[in-house]
Hints:
The structure holds 2 protein chains of 2 kinds. Chain A has 5 helices and 10 strands. By secondary structure, chain A is α+β, with helices and mostly antiparallel strands. Among the domains of chain A are: 3-46; 101-183, Immunoglobulin-like. Chain B has helices at 5-24, 27-45, 52-72, 77-80, 98-105, 109-120, 125-132, 136-160; one strand at residues 91-94. Chain B has a single domain (5-160), classed as Butyryl-CoA Dehydrogenase, subunit A, domain 3 (Up-down Bundle), CATH 1.20.140. Chain B is globular, with a radius of gyration of 16 Å. Chains A and B meet through helix 1, helix 3, strand 1 and strand 8 of A and helix 1, strand 1, helix 5, helix 6 and helix 8 of B.
Amino acid sequence: MNEIISMYIDDEMTLDDKIAFIEKIRADIFFSDETMGLLQQEKLIRSEVVERLPVLDTGPRFDWKKFFKPFFQPMGIVASALAALIVLLLIYTPHPAPGLITERFVIFKPDVSQVEITGTFTDWKRIPMNKIDDSGYWEIYLNLTQGEQRFVYILDNRYSFADPTMPARERDDFGGENSIFYAAQRI
Amino acid sequence: MKETYSSFYRAHKDKLFGYLIRLSGDYQLACDIMQESFTRFLERYAGKPLNPSLLYTIARNAVLDDVRKRTQRKDYRELIDDQPPDLEKQMLIREDYRNVLAAMQQLEKTERDILALTVSSNMTYREIAAVAGISEANVKVKVHRARIRLKKILKMEKNDE
């Protein structure tokens, strides 16, 4: 057994060990191949086990007193009256509501019993997807607002999975990936 | 700077979870034992220097206790296994890591334990020897044997696909 490879991986070598190790690497091609293979494997074993969805930032509590303070200054009263007038005008001027876009999400996962979707458009709440008979496909139609959206699928309540058909991904802070796309009205 | 309990928690939480899940392969169990270990650690050793080896010893014993209890009586976890995890809800096992975890569960018990400790914590062979109650030379042999076996298992699985 070449325990010296593990000592190399785990930083457990004395100077004499290091000398012996380099000599062996030079002399023995099988040994150097094995070292390389174990180093590659080590990268895999030591990679992140879990990933986490971003936790909603609740931030500091909103201070109503501070917010309304300027409104009770003389100029503040005038300004807020003016602003209220503009708001009223806007409300009573007819204008089209900003359109929601219906987007179909679909994923092929025949070997799981549940698929959920979560993303910016669900406030990172999970929404279960519908199984399409026995086809192995799961789908859901969701209404989203126009703009950049990020999301991830969740398999069997435990494993997260970025959409393989979307090239744009983002690494979250925990070693996982979210899919990114731009939701826009199709013509 | 004196290390506070909360900075100690932040520094070791993920590593400890990594160790527990690599050792047990059980997500729910790893969540439970992680919380329990920190609680016990705080209760018994508050005020003393914060020692990671001690934390890992507590966690390791908790896993071993659980395994012992399970073999003694019917597995109560089967009943609650389908429920979604309450604690640390944001944590999910990465898709890519599933077969590594599965392969690790096929290793012999002590070898898995030593390998999980080595790759998850920043401890030296000497510290690991103290946690696991074996000699330092034995740690060296076992960790390497575990790596070689794991390589074989992963290779076999790859060929099966």
